[in-house]
Design a protein that fits this description.
This protein has 367 residues and is an alpha/beta fold. The protein is built from eleven helices and twelve strands. β5, α5 and β6 form a beta-alpha-beta unit. α1 runs antiparallel to α6, α3 packs parallel to α4 and α8 packs across α11. The longest helix has 19 residues. The two termini are 23 Å apart. The relative contact order is 0.17.
Length: 367
């Protein structure tokens, strides 16, 4: 039986089209785009084309922002957060943010962590930088970016910067770049079915950054290193592909989400606690089975039943620590340890949800 993939929040799956283009691009754009030769000009233009397409998908006008290509959203967040402003200026971060955002903020001299339930009201006077995730990667909770921006403008210092991690929302829902005054925005290729090892930081015009990686001065000095033309091109292709099927996928994913929660009602006597909010992003459904180990259930589902789910942030799962997200939300360790995350994508079917529910019951019966 084929594997059943229900971990799209951890990583998207590349389509057959994207996989076929890899070899094509590798043959055509193998030269260094920074070499300045006529032969390398096609590779340079391919990167510029990818930038235009990414900005267009985000609804950003020409000249309003530029893209700094990175190795992923983690590097993008580090560049944006650690490279911005005066080192001792106040940076505030949602305590339930992705570890890449949270740890980057902790590297600054003056970091203030805020409980998500207290935002935006708790944002302190003098905040120079506010860092939040548009869609939380563990729970699917959607941040009220408009209210957060308004509060930042009310209490922030003269140099205010709004940093938003959009790895989970890019190509899944609208991102209010202009209306919410986002200054720095991070996205990831593999979340939309592109290759791993590619990401981007979208930088509003006029925002100054200090580079974290120095060397040859590529990308106008923002991030040195030879660009991965193939990976960047495939990122733009995958993003366009995901965006084109977004409207059709939305309704189907909402139905899958509703069907999953309906099926999980049968586990109410197993310590079931719903964690994902009802108004969250439909592609993520996180719950806890108190008294069980979510990581153990995840492993059994994968090894015995070929079903792949998540049990927290894929980027920090190896650390083996309880979820900082659920702790920031006020849940105790027993809830955190029992957490399981199911996430849907363009290829998820109702049969996958049904298969998961049957396998989950078997897991608990044999636990």
């Amino acid at each position: 039986m084929d594997d059943c993939y229900l971990d799209y929040a951890g990583s998207g799956l590349p389509s057959e089209t994207i996989m076929a283009r890899y070899a094509e691009y590798a043959r055509e754009f193998s030269l260094n785009p920074h070499s300045g030769t006529r032969q390398a000009e096609a590779a340079r233009r391919k990167v510029l084309d990818a930038e235009c397409r990414i900005l267009e998908l985000l609804g950003i006008r020409e000249g309003e922002a530029h893209v700094v290509w990175t190795s992923g959203a983690t590097e993008a967040l580090n560049l944006g957060i650690r490279g911005y402003g005066v080192e001792n200026s106040m940076a505030c971060v949602d305590g339930a943010a992705h570890p890449a955002m949270l740890e980057a903020c902790r590297c600054r001299a003056n970091c203030v962590e805020l409980a998500p339930r207290n935002l935006p009201e708790a944002l302190p006077v003098g905040c120079e930088m506010l860092c939040v995730c548009h869609v939380n990667n563990e729970t699917g909770a959607v941040a009220d970016l408009m209210s957060l921006r308004k509060r930042l403008d009310q209490v922030g210092g003269r140099s205010r910067c709004f940093v938003v991690d959009c790895a989970q929302s890019f190509c899944r829902q609208g991102i209010p770049w202009r209306s919410c005054g986002i200054d720095l925005l991070s996205i990831s290729s593999r979340k939309v079915g592109g290759p791993a090892g590619v990401g981007a930081l979208v930088v509003r015009r006029g925002v100054a950054l200090r580079p974290l990686i120095v060397g040859g001065g590529q990308q106008s000095g923002f991030r040195s290193g030879t660009l991965d033309v193939v990976g960047i091109s495939l990122f733009a292709d995958a993003a366009e592909e995901a965006s084109q099927c977004q409207s059709q996928a939305d309704a189907r994913i909402r139905q899958l989400n509703e069907g999953l929660w309906h099926g999980l009602e049968a586990f109410s006597d197993r310590g079931l606690i719903r964690i994902s909010p009802a108004d969250g992003s439909a592609h993520i459904a996180t719950f806890s089975l108190v008294g069980y180990e979510g990581a153990v259930i995840k492993r059994i589902l994968a090894d015995r039943y070929g079903i792949l789910v998540g049990s927290g942030s894929a980027c920090s799962a190896e650390a083996g620590k309880p979820s900082h997200v659920l702790a920031a939300m006020g849940y105790d360790e027993s809830v955190s340890r029992g957490a399981i995350r199911v996430s849907f994508g363009p290829c998820t079917r109702q049969e996958d949800v049904d298969r998961f529910l049957v396998a989950l019951k078997s897991c608990l019966d044999q636990y």
